[in-house]
Design a protein that fits this description.
14 helices, P1 Nuclease, single chain, mainly alpha, three-stranded mixed beta sheet
Length: 389
């Protein structure tokens, strides 16, 4: 799959917004990556679905709310469990989704919110403490975020490695973890070293058109059962191409140096980078497929609002947006209002100038006709004088 750098549609304005976000906030793949997924989603939504998303989100779109659920984690720490589907070490071909206490795991949560929005009883309930009752808009935001999490293979990491956090990786002279390599290090490396690509409008469904059309047709037939197949894909990729080095075919844990560190070379980095962006695009397309289906069948029946307010960071973001807007307005000269006799003199002056310009234009417009008329009168007079002679 190739990734172009041309801007598509409203990509320029979205790019400027993301540049601003980059300057104002700390970075993490789960934020920048989710925003990229959300941008791809918006490019694939039907026109009516775009309007409904805007209505439900209070004017925001899928990119704006793509990381909303991670803010909820700070207010309700237990919700962090909803973003992960821990796998047993010995299982790789399919995702293990049954070992999930109180339905607090990624796939059960996706089925729960999907069932809430479609009105289907999928046999999954998640009890929120403190009497919190999530709104339709909250469920949409959660679904956007959690479907995006499926793109990050280490959200299906094994329990014994703590989702890859127990595997130390040396990447460009910096020690990190396998989880963080996929969660932020690759993304931030691209943003820093290849900004022309990251801000180049690559987040469009046309970049994954084949997969989008295939998944769209399958979802029309299989609906929520297809969600489990998508989970299987991520779990299988996690085993075959993340925990296992796709270049050497060996398990990463077999390639640790004497200090227990895996050295990520540039060749493997390039492979993982391509895979990551491909997965982000596919994830954005799949979010759009699910939302298009839900919003088409529930048009006008879903309600806006939120049951989870005062999230950390939201006030700062709104304040920053307000400051940016005020700053732009400050660049616009403000007119000073003149009143009383000075205003009369100013209006008289402006009126005189306008009248003068009008008379000059009229004279210029009428000039050729008057000259022709004078010439005709002169010839007429000359002719009359000749006859008398």
């Amino acid at each position: 799959m190739s990734f172009g750098s041309g801007l598509v549609g409203g990509g320029l304005w979205r790019t400027l917004a993301l540049v601003l976000a980059l300057c104002l906030r700390a970075h993490a793949w789960d934020k920048d990556g989710h925003e990229a997924i959300g941008m791809t989603t918006m490019s694939a939504l039907d026109t009516s679905a775009v309007a409904q998303v805007k209505h439900l989100m209070g004017g925001k779109d899928a990119a704006d709310v793509a990381a909303w659920a991670h803010k909820v984690n700070k207010k309700y720490p237990w919700t962090t469990e909803l973003h992960f589907q821990r796998q047993p070490s010995t299982r790789c071909e399919k995702a293990q989704i049954d070992d999930c206490k109180d339905n607090r795991c990624l796939m059960k949560a996706i089925l729960y919110f999907y069932g809430r929005l479609t009105g289907k009883d999928l046999g999954v309930e998640i009890t929120w403490p403190d009497g919190v009752k999530l709104t339709d808009a909250d469920c949409v935001k959660y679904l956007i975020n959690l479907l995006g999490d499926m793109a990050q293979p280490l959200h299906f990491g094994t329990a014994d490695t703590d989702m890859g956090r127990n595997i130390t990786v040396l990447f460009r002279d910096k020690k990190t973890t396998l989880f963080d390599v996929w969660d932020k290090e690759i993304t931030q490396s691209v943003i820093k070293n290849e900004p022309h690509f990251w801000w180049g409008g690559w987040t469009h469904v046309q970049r994954t058109r084949v997969e989008y059309e295939r998944d769209s047709e399958q979802f029309k037939k299989e609906h929520e059962s297809l969600l489990n197949r998508w989970a299987d894909e991520s779990a299988k990729f996690m085993c075959s191409s993340v925990y296992r080095n796709p270049i050497t075919g060996k398990q990463i844990t077999e390639e640790l140096d004497e200090n227990g560190v895996f050295r990520l070379n540039e060749q493997l980095y390039d492979i993982w980078k391509r895979e990551m962006f491909s997965k982000m695009l596919v994830a954005g397309a799949r979010v759009a497929i699910v939302l298009n289906s839900i919003l088409h069948h529930r048009e006008g029946q879903l309600h806006a609002g939120t049951a989870v307010s005062h999230l950390e960071g939201e006030e700062e973001e709104e304040e920053s947006s307000s400051k940016v807007l005020k700053g732009r307005r400050a660049d616009i000269p403000h007119r000073q209002h003149i009143r009383g006799f000075p205003a009369f003199l100013l209006n008289l002056f402006i009126g005189s100038i306008a009248l003068f310009c009008f008379l000059v234009l009229m004279r210029l417009w009428a000039g050729p006709d008057r000259a022709k008329q004078a010439e005709r009168e002169k010839r007429s007079a000359t002719g009359t004088a000749g006859k008398k002679t």
